[in-house]
Design goal:
CATH superfamily: Ribosomal protein S20
CATH architecture: Up-down Bundle
Strand content: under 5%
CATH class: Mainly Alpha
Radius of gyration: 18 Å
Largest sheet: none
Length: about 90
């Protein structure tokens, strides 16, 4: 347990920030899963709409610094490639 006043404050803010970070990372993971499910079910319209939501979630997590820039680009490219292959 911290004794210094500023350390006590930082413990509180760390907890709040951890909750926020977990929310964004869970949002990204769930969005990717839902997009991949719609790709597996061969539903083009659902896959495209889910991809847009996923892209937004990934970009938001990237801007917050939760996911590296290259990882964001790679995830989006892989999903986009799967959707294009499915559409053809």
């Amino acid at each position: 347990m911290p004794i210094i006043k500023s350390s006590k404050k930082s413990v509180k803010t760390d907890k709040a920030q951890t909750v926020a970070n977990n929310f964004y990372t869970k949002t990204v993971k769930n969005a990717i899963k839902s997009t991949e499910k719609s790709i597996e079910s061969k539903d083009v319209d659902a896959a495209k709409s889910n991809y847009l939501k996923t892209q937004k979630a990934i970009d938001k997590a990237c801007s917050k610094g939760l996911i590296k820039k290259n990882t964001c680009a790679r995830e989006k490219a892989r999903l986009n490639k799967k959707i294009k292959e499915m559409a053809n």
